[in-house]
Amino acid sequence: MLKRLLLLLSLLAIATGVGWKYRPQLIQWWRTASVSLEPGKKPVPDPKAYAVMVSELERWRSDLATRHRAARTNAERQSIERETRSLLETALPAMMRCWLGTPWDFHGTAKGPGQGKIACGYFVATVLQDAGFKVDRYKLAQQPSGNILRSFLPKKACTLTVGQEYNTFATGVEKLDPGIYVVGLDTHVAFIVVRDDSTFRFIHSSGSRPWCVVDESRAEAAVLQRSNWRMLGNLTASPAVLRRWLNAEKIPVHGT
């Protein structure tokens, strides 16, 4: 995580001259994304921090998009896309964690952290929409998890395992490239954040105990462990996804 933060800071500072201007915000986001809760302490949703992140991320998206459009070479565009990936891989986990403790409900459609109850699909769809992806959160949330993934990624960019023993699956995930993954399960959808230290976090609105948005380690991820069907795709590793975010392109919902 620290390696990713330092890379993000250096890329923004060198390429745009604004990285150090936003340095305090980046450090705060990194801390939000990486801090561990004290054992037994119940998480509390943080709508104020979330609102700031949503606003700042849109400002950064606009800045990066302007530079991306002005780039004269493929190398320049690819450099900006690498910056974009680092930014999203820092900001998205921090945004997810602002929801921790928000109650789950099968029909929950909360618009923000702590503003009601939230279903698993609505949690994924709302975080992505608020992060700047131009997608209809209602249509996206109501789709099967496979269609949620396919709204962002082609079939060849998604991996599907059926009946695989959990430790084998989890070890495979730890060997994947770092990034923000969406994972579809038997009757569930969630985020998996694969980190630079070859660990991952399973962040989701859980319909099992404790029935709220949680951030779980490999060992704690009981819902992930129980699932027989697992479909996985790395959003932030896809240049096409990054460009759609940069350009604020409307994302059609697969299956509608």
Walk me through the topology:
Blueprint: H1 2-16, H2 23-34, H3 47-70, H4 74-97, H5 120-130, H6 137-141, H7 145-150, E1 158-162, H8 166-174, E2 179-184, E3 189-194, E4 200-205, E5 213-216, H9 222-226, E6 229-234, H10 239-246
Antiparallel strand pairs: 1-6, 2-3, 2-6, 3-4, 4-5
Helix pairs in contact: 1-4, 2-4, 3-4, 4-10
Can you give a write-up of this model?
42% of the residues are buried. This protein has a 6-stranded antiparallel beta sheet with strand order 1-6-2-3-4-5. It has one domain. The radius of gyration is 17 Å and the shape is globular. A hairpin with a 5-residue loop joins β3 and β4. The protein has 256 residues and is an alpha+beta fold. α3 runs antiparallel to α4 and α4 packs across α10.
> Uncertain regions: pLDDT < 50 for 5+ in a row?
1-22
Gross morphology:
globular
What portion of the residues fall into strands of 2 or more residues?
5-15%
The main sheet comes to:
6 strands, antiparallel
Physical arrangement of strands within the biggest beta sheet: 1-6-2-3-4-5
Indicate the mean pLDDT: 89
Task: State the share of residues found in helices, binned by percent.
Answer: 40-55%
Number of domains: 1
